Amino acid sequence: MSSRTVAKRGFNLDYIMWLFMRLSALALYALGLTGLVAALIMGARTQTDISTLLRWTFFPNPSHVISSDIVNLEPWINSFWQIIQMLVVFFGVTHGINGLRMVVEDFIGSSWWRVLWRGFIFFLWLFILLVAIYVVLAS
């Protein structure tokens, strides 16, 4: 078993991704809190159960609950909530894929396998982001 070399000081991919993991987690907390507070202000505490409230916290999509008991969907139908959804998807997917990248690089030595896995993970990230953005914009 070979040991991993210590990364160089300064701005490199490992440091930037380490910093991104911390900031993206904070961004996900902030976006979730924004959705939760907005839902409670708009009357979700009296109109929905807890599972619907938590789902709407991260993906406030009025077309998903047309057959529900929610009376007023108008505050949710605007581009602000689509931007919030896309930010949640971007930070969540990128955070998770970066975690996958770190795990894979811990177990794969420096060889052509690492390059192959990095390419696969990059295309997986790109595919998931494109599909998620399509779902957000098409619904």
TrEMBL record:
Subcellular location per the Swiss-Prot or TrEMBL entry: Membrane
Pfam families per record: Sdh_cyt
InterPro entries: SQR/QFR_C/D, SuccDH_FuR_B_TM-su
Domain of life: Bacteria
GO CC terms: membrane
Transmembrane segments: 83-103, 115-137
Keywords of this entry: Heme, Iron, Membrane, Metal-binding, Transmembrane, Transmembrane helix
UniProt xrefs under Gene3D superfamilies: Fumarate reductase/succinate dehydrogenase, transmembrane subunit
SUPFAM superfamilies reported for this sequence: Fumarate reductase respiratory complex transmembrane subunits
Protein name, per record: Succinate dehydrogenase
